[in-house]
């Protein structure tokens, strides 16, 4: 096993060569051991006839010329090549006469912003040759090599490398779903925290909801893709790899079910938030109505004593005192009653 930089093996060429279109990392494994690295793309034909050699070509931000150079050598279908060069293709597995085409997404949740960061990964599986295409180096392919075993690679070939890639990708799904679950629990606490502005709660809710929708859109198709890889007529999964692929498939199902529960959870949070806002509005209206009633009774009394006909105490100083006492007493009684009922 070697690390991402390729520190062991025979005939290693040091740092990956830089091509005009981007970084290209080439590896050749013979008997499960890395024997040659960073050879030119034009030399791929040297390994095509060797049944004991597995070739892995990793193209990071390639241009059309690099892709077509590989496509001509491996006879890749033009539609698959176009999908690899186009951004935003859905996760899928397409079967062609000379190869398989796998498209998937590695994901990571930025908890601070609530944004889901994803990177598209395309893979051509042509016999004992694997070609991976990435728009940038965000996804750590070194994690695949760190998990690899020389004996297993020798026994299972390209299928073992493909399993390593999708295993790392699916592990990323679980990490993102777990982080999203924790963020939603924190959001639930924010709902009842009066020190948190409502605008902050609203913004956070819709940020997490958007990320959840995107995450589901990228996880759901992987169930069909992994199931397609496991079909015996693809010739990719050996008997020794069936259990490993089945484990990845089960993890995809679990991640899918987890996102379903999170969808229900965030819908519940949004409904609860609306209910809390409605209750707060009702409380404000109740208080305003209580104060309006307190003001209305003294206004009624003032209007009575302000009429233009004689009444007891009219024009007398004690009449004004009685009027004032009634005003204060009625307002105080209403205030106490409303206060006890929780209306103020």
TrEMBL record:
Keyword annotations: Cell membrane, Membrane, Transmembrane, Transmembrane helix, Transport
Main location: membrane
Region described as Disordered: 1-25
Membrane topology annotation: Multi-pass membrane protein
Biological source species: Frankia torreyi
TM helices/strands, residue ranges: 288-306, 318-338
Keyword Membrane attributed: yes
Record GO cellular component, one term: plasma membrane
GO MF annotation, one: cobalt ion binding
Regions of compositional bias (Gly residues) in chain numbering: 1-12
Family that this chain belongs to: Belongs to the CorA metal ion transporter (MIT) (TC 1.A.35) family.
CDD domains cross-referenced by the UniProt entry: TmCorA-like (cd12822)
Subcellular location: Cell membrane
Annotated InterPro entries: CorA_cytoplasmic_dom, CorA_TM1_TM2, MgTranspt_CorA/ZnTranspt_ZntB
Name of the featured protein: Mg2+/Co2+ transporter
Domain of life from the UniProt record: Bacteria
